[in-house]
């Protein structure tokens, strides 16, 4: 005797009724509760030490007790600058990025040196790379651009009240940068067309676009 075929209404599926209350279905997870996700470092070895980067190979214990390898890059952090002219144009840089083997259009940025605050780094990098100083500084946002393999943190600032000239720039040895002023309209058009892939620059420009639309 063949087994009876269950009625379609009795079989669970994508349209099965959810008997949870609406409060339960719409509950927002507590992102501050990392009890079930936190990984504990068991051991940590530096496998490479470079000029300012180093690579660690760690053993990490997961909540289920298993231990796994975690390889990651230790980064000192960086600051980036969204420098604006009196007419709202953005100070941009063209430079070659060796790991990607191509030229990039991006906002000024640089690593945090020992003993510096992120703001001090931003002020130094703006002067060194562009020859400009800013009278007014404002924190814009903080990003973690490579969370899968690095602890890098980038602090992005808005700089206004600019003075100076490219002739006053003092680039690091081996650093070649060309500066140029561009409109936000042109830059956002490039972002939308996929022509401006640098992540810190994209995020800074989207923030600026939102502020512009709000009239800030």
Helix percentage range: 10-25%
DSSP helical segment count: 4
Broad structural category: alpha+beta
* Count of individual beta strands: 10
Report Rg. 24 Å
Major sheet:
4 strands, mixed
Overall form:
globular
Helix and strand element order: HEEEEEEEHEEEHH
What amount of the residues lies in strands? Answer: 35-45%
Strand arrangement within the widest β-sheet reads 7-4-9-8
Runs in which pLDDT lies below 50 for 5 or more consecutive residues are: 1-20
Describe this protein's structure.
It is a single chain. The chain is an alpha+beta fold and 216 residues long. 19% of the residues lie in helices and 35% in strands. It has four helices and ten strands. The chain has helices at residues 22-25, 118-130, 184-192, 199-214; strands spanning 40-49, 54-61, 67-74, 78-83, 90-97, 102-106, 109-111, 132-143, 154-164, 178-182. A four-stranded mixed β-sheet has the order 7-4-9-8, sandwiched between helices. A three-stranded antiparallel β-sheet has the order 1-2-3, with no helix packed on it. Strands 6-5-10 form a three-stranded antiparallel β-sheet. β1 and β2 form a beta hairpin. α3 (184-192) crosses α4. The chain is globular, with a radius of gyration of 24 Å. 17% of the residues are buried.
List keywords for this structure.
three-stranded antiparallel sheet; 216 residues; 4 helices; disordered N terminus; alpha+beta
Précis, in short:
With 216 residues, the chain is α+β, with helices and mostly antiparallel strands. The chain contains four helices and ten strands, in the order H-E-E-E-E-E-E-E-H-E-E-E-H-H.
């Amino acid at each position: 005797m063949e087994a009876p075929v269950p009625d379609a209404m009795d079989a669970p599926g994508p349209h099965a009724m959810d008997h949870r209350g609406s409060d339960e279905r719409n509950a927002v997870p507590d992102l501050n509760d990392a009890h079930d996700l936190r990984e504990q470092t068991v051991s940590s070895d530096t496998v490479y030490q470079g000029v300012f980067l180093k690579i660690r190979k760690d053993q990490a214990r997961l909540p289920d007790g298993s231990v796994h390898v975690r390889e990651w890059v230790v980064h000192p952090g960086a600051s980036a600058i969204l420098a604006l002219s009196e007419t709202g144009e953005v100070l941009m840089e063209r430079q070659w990025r060796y790991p990607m083997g191509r030229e990039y259009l991006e906002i000024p940025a640089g690593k945090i040196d020992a003993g510096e605050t992120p703001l001090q780094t931003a002020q130094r990098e703006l002067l060194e790379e562009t020859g400009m100083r800013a009278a007014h500084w404002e924190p814009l946002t903080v990003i973690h651009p490579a969370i899968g393999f690095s602890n890098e943190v980038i602090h992005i600032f808005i700089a206004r009240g600019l003075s100076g000239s490219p002739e006053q720039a003092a680039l690091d040895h081996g650093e070649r940068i060309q500066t140029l002023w561009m409109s936000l309209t042109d830059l956002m058009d490039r972002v939308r067309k996929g022509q401006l892939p640098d992540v810190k620059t994209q995020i800074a420009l989207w923030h600026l676009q939102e502020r512009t639309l709000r009239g800030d």
